[in-house]
Amino acid sequence: MLGPVILAASRSDKMRRFVSAAPGTKQVVARFIAGESVDDVVPIVQELSDRGLEVTLDVVGEDITTVEQSYAARDAYLELIGRLKELGLGERAEMSVKLSMFGQSLENGHELALANVRPVVEAAAEIGTTVTLDAEDHTTLDSMFAIHEELRKDFPQTGCVIQAYLFRTEDDARRLAENGSRVRIVKGAYKEPASVAIQDRPGIDRAYVRIMKILMDGEGYPMIGSHDPRLISIGQELARRAGRKLDEYEFQMLYGIRGEEQTRLAAEGHRMRVYTAYGTDWYGYFMRRLAEKPANLLFFVRSILTKG
Prior knowledge:
Layout: H1 2-9, H2 13-21, H3 25-32, H4 38-50, E1 54-59, H5 67-87, E2 93-97, H6 109-126, E3 131-133, H7 141-152, E4 159-163, H8 169-178, E5 182-186, H9 201-217, E6 221-225, H10 229-241, E7 250-254, H11 259-267, E8 272-278, H12 283-292, H13 294-307
């Protein structure tokens, strides 16, 4: 399977340099990354909103090495929120943040990440929106969930992400469903060992369905992060069985993938949110998109060959 190989490459500086220099990279990256700056992404938010779609915005970047970089990440999100406020787009766009970008892996990282993300959550609340804490590899999750719980004391709409391929996730889903959390469920896009994660795709899909049911039957707000038509259909049926109205859950898909399906779901009355990433440090995010779907990798390889 190519997925694990690509995920390993996402941590390689040598591969980062190779991929960045490849002649077809820019074309493919543009499919998944909405731009490099706030000025690039704001028109896209407006265009998606005009089509009846909602947005979650991710300033890409992770694995920082200095406290100063964590402050820069905080300030990038505060700049974004300021622009959304100017344009009156707060209610259509939320933010997704990776706590690693806010200093989670540095010395005293838990406290640093919490201190950096809190003003972002506060600023988001002031313009009528919220923040979702993205899940990263399994070693970071206890810290992420603790920060999520702390933020929800003052900002109960703060969301978090759970990953279906981890053995722990069903228990996490039950706890979050009981306390009324906003929860995005995804399959999982990090290279995890067999001791903590399901390794086969059918097994991951079955876990995904079990977790969707837990969330739909619970007290929280499920956010179904998937492009898989079968899982989307199952999610709709589980919501119907649980008696949920169309505004009591939502679907989420990545920018650049299945745009027609995004529009179709929104036209049917579903809440449809587009995960839209932007920024200059795109490599790790981009490689995980390649790992998730072989067609993405084939598209990339063809672009290199035709541009070479």
